[in-house]
Fold each of these.
Amino acid sequence: MLIKRISPSDCKESDVTDERIYLGRREIIKAMGFFGAGSLLASSAASAGILDIFGEQPQSNLFQQSALDYSPAGASAEELTPEAKITGHNNFYEFGVEKHQPAELAQSFKVNPWQLKISGEVENPYTLDYDDLHTTFSLEERIYRLRCVEAWSMVVPWIGFSLAELVKKAKPTSRAKYLAFETLYDPDQMPGQKSRRLGGGIDYPYIEGLRIDEAMNPLALMSVGLYGKTLPPQNGAPVRLVVPWKYGFKSIKSIVGIKFVERRPPTTWNILAPNEYGFYANVNPAVDHPRWSQASERRITSGGLFAQNRIPTLPFNGYGEQVAEMYRGMNLRKYY
Amino acid sequence: MAIKVPRKWIPILKALVHFAALYPLISLYYAAFQDRLGGDPVEAVIHFTGIGALNLLLLSLLLSPLAKKLQMAFLIQFRRMIGLYAFVYGLCHVLNFLFFEVQFDLQLFVDEVFKRPYITVGMAAFLLLLALAATSTHKIRRKMRERWQTLHNFSYLIALLVVIHFYWSVKSEIVEPLLYASVYVALMALRRHKLQSWVRRKHSLNKS
């Protein structure tokens, strides 16, 4: 069990790259010229404007994160991914398909007011407002590995509450077999929902789903923060799912709705490419993505190009003890 | 109206091309070694060198139609060096994958090249480009005579393979690969007479 691997001591704050240095990386890329840089330029120029090549991003335009009250987890046995990398390397196509784009295009995203509606096959449908997200359930820190389907991974100190608590409060009926999650649809705020180029040709809103037993698993987390503060928009503010034994795309961001349903909900990546992205999407080194191996992964921590960080991928991302039971008897090659 | 450039300008222009091709590459690796290239410097260097190679390939294919249409014959003098830089970027792209993505796991490297069609296609393009780069000196060109041109006509196929490699590699963001594909089609359209004459010749050969 993960908990046993954690010993009470401080997180490595020294790993964190200074925010201003980190935000300056765009200038480095932009200053690199015209030839190869063409495509990198083109995408950020779409929104940032090509003329601000030497312009520092004003600090006041940054999204303001606030401190959270939570019970800390202590340090993990594994090296944490620096905060700047967690908040600067994001797959959140609503804010652009390139990893650096969400951090650039999401800073003015409004998270308050917010409404997360819990509905469907439940006795007690309810709505969580922005403040409720931080006060209704007790917040705790959990350090989880995040394994992206693209074969890179991070170690993230999330803060959040157990999804099981949210489910219990709703009192699901016997017909509730699945949970369907939905991301905010607001093209005015989310440029990727407006532009096919920025949004990667996905039909929005982004939707994801879990079986109800998966949602009740103690590992499933509704996250409202990381590194001690509320989530920045590029990581899915104000509230997102974290299911650490599944590929990252299951961990849907900026959630406005959770609906309890009887049938398996359609899910965004599964609709887009069913042969590449399954509904379950459990991390599984034995089942390759059709276009790349899932047997190993690159762990993103600190260090530049020469940081040797390819490590074997573990079944269920190393959380087999807590989750494998739910899939007993299932053919995981078929239900990938 | 032919546009001429004084002879003495050519070395200066060539120096500029060298700078324009090398400076981005050097800054890229410098930033990547310093871990100042976003969250994942490995992905950044792979994408940058890959796109860079494709840009240079397409640029090299643009030069001769441009030289003809605008009567700017001096442009032809830049074709070889731009083609060679396309190879350099392509070489960096492949080495990035080997060094930084699979991290010298040769078995994984070979497996990925053969198992993943988009990588197979990309590797085929790279090997063809290697053959072109290896035969790019004047001496070899003279030795090879007509066969040299035949070999170097493979640049059309290489660019096509790279465009396919790019399209195939993305998850869902196909707009940019499609833009590159349309640039490729346009470049081939500029050569339609040459391409048509090949087809005709082959056709008549088959008949006789």
Amino acid sequence: MQRCVQTGALNQSIILRIKKAAMGFNSIVMVKQVPDTANISGQVMKEDGTVNRAKLPAIFNHEDRVAIELALQIKDKFGGKVTAITMGPPRASDILRECLYMGADEAYLISDRKFAGADTLATSYVLSEAIKKIGGYDFVFAGRQAIDGDTAQVGPQTAEKLHIPQITYSEEILGIKDGSVQIKRKIDGGFEVLESKLPLLVTVIKDAVSPRPFKARRVMAYKNARTLLELEKLTEGNSLLYIDQLKDDYVNKGLYIHTLTMDDLKLDESRCGVHGSPTKVHKVESVVLAGGSHEMIEPTKEGISRLIDQLLEDHILG
Amino acid sequence: MPNYFSDNTDILYHFEKLNLKDIVNIAEDEYKQAEQFDDAPVNYEDAMENYRKVMEIVGDITGNYIAPRAAKIDEEGAVFENGKVTYAKGTQEALEMLSKAELMGMILPRRFGGLNFPTTIYMMAVELISRAEASLMNIFGLQDIAKTIDKFATEEQREFYLPGFSSGLYTGAMALTEPDAGSDLQAVKLTAYQDENGNWFLRGVKRFITNGNGDVLLVLARTEAGTKDARGLSMLSCMKDDSIIVRRIEHKLGIHGSPTCELQFNDTPAELIGTRRFGLLKYVIYLMNRARVGIGAQSLGISQQAYEEALKYAKAREQFGKPIYNFPVVANMLIDMRVTLESNRTLFYNTCTWLDRKEAYEDLIEKRKSEKLPFNDVNEKFKEAQRMTNFLTPTTKYILSEASNKMTYDSIQIHGGTGYMREFAVERLARDARITNIYEGTSQLQIVAAAGSVINDVLADYINDWEKKEYKGSLKKLKESLMEIRVLFNDALKYVKEKKDTGFQDVAAKDLVELYSYIYTGYLLLDEANDDQRRVFTAKRFILDSLARSRKNAESIKNELYSDILHADTILI
């Protein structure tokens, strides 16, 4: 109490915090459209073992839907704004509309042919620059990982590039108080509770919460929300439609999905897409797990030590 | 990821074929609502797109969220403890999900948080809900109570009750039945009385009240002391409070998720809905007719699932070295089930559309009257729609609810001994189906309700038009079969009329209603087959089967099969 009186700066920060709480917390949620790997049929696998994405239905990466839900729960409780962003091809606008159906306030499609072939490094570069441009966030949310790459790297790399702390594998937001947040995260064999200052990047696991359904009224209201790329498509072959007018019209109706390209973000081309991606796929192989012989290990010191030797020998450990 | 809407080709077929243009136009004030609400459609195509998208949500939630909870809901059931009713966990979760998806006020006006959808689309949702978990329909389907309040209450009452329904905060119940007033609602005794300030209070007992633990109760009560018939009954609404005691809930054969309550009203504060003395004659009839269509949807949903289970099992189960599906006897049963399902759905969505028309024209007449504009043209359409619903509502409820019993029976049969076991879903479906032809008026009462229309041959003009219509190829022969059924019907009807014996007429009514329904459904299917090659199979089996049945129906009447009723006391020893 005494210190508050003493330092005007602290007083100022308390006022700011109170103001902040009243305004709620803004979240940017990174989402991804992924191939539906749970429903792979014959035509989908190419002979070289890679996936023919065009043949796979594209779906909303489930853990990203969970991330949207968490962001919306913060909004429901404290107020604020939820913004969904995705980097992807034009058709990724489908999942942005779905974010709007769930309750997101705004959506951004980050799309450019030059982003194609991006690995996690290039992707996190583009996303972090987009997030900087959008700005004004307290939280950045993402699913733990996408079911196509399973790397779980984009979230952490984005946090690094934004120079903000991160909490991964989050299960539950326990509380937000005085500009810091307590989060329960999953670890091997249990959980731990971490506290962090805001802004913070949070990646979430699928069991964290059950995502809410699409809301009927929002579906009807936002079913015609369109990205710039989709609006451009509409103007093709229709000389009466001018893209700027059309865009203004959609913005005025609240049906515009923000669309950002490489130029809009003033990005370094050498860090985008295939050029900015050091990851090269060396080989794809289909691993068939076959049953083999088994060995009993005695639960003794000697037994365990023999097992460890064996594992080291097989290069499973070490 | 099953979607009960977009995976069901038969429902999609009907969805595509719907013609709700007039209805939506009226309901949307010629699309002026779009100026006020961003979820309102700007034209008919936009409206249909809205309905499709929302039905996809319903299909997703029912297929992926509710259906997996059905077995547990049946096992757990609603529980009554310390005077309090608690839904099964799955029921609670399902209701929460449906509320979050904004589906609890589908047919309510937008200004009260509703979606302002036609009844037909709402009934499609009810069908899907029932397929996933039949007893959930008994809570979800109570949106009709809110609709009744919307139709007959004051604006102030609407504002009080309806937003809570839309958000899922309130569930409702219609409290009609009493220990001595079941099918005969004129005998209702529960008393409504006024204090010196004109406030109403309820005192008495209601029994078998579906979801009687609900938050908003519509109660049929005797407001006119000393009266004994329908003209002394009024409709009142009240909120759940301590003055209403749930005395018990019933232990039922099926629909375990739906609590059936006995309620005691101890001077419960209530409000009059609409005008005194019209409780049964107008409001309950309105509510009941909608509820009957709802039971049709419930029956259809159960039937769909019974068919799915039977088909899946027949393909998986091998005996004598091959799937039992490959045995003609089993395939024949499955085809019977499929044709019953499809023909019932055709009849059902036709009924829904007529109900929608009736209500839309009625609303339009009200509007024209209030604007002092002429409404004669609409009045004609309204009267036609009213005639059709008077016949179709009870007939559809009768046909579909009986069919759901037969469908679940056959589904168990195809499962063999396995189907009799708790581990498989079909025994639950059979138990759930068993109530459909009892509540909201037994089948016997539906026949009484439909008989007048049948005896007056209200469909004559439609059938004449159909008889004049050209049909392609093999359909010509099927049309002749339908014409033959009509001859049988006319003969039987003439016989009944000439006999001038009301007792005989009451018993023969079942055959007459069935005969008439074969003709109507038969022509609907014939029209569908005219445009869709696959549906020729459906039309053919339905019509030929109906022809065989209609001979039995007609002969039962003309051979005086029922004359021995006069000797009932001798026979029934």
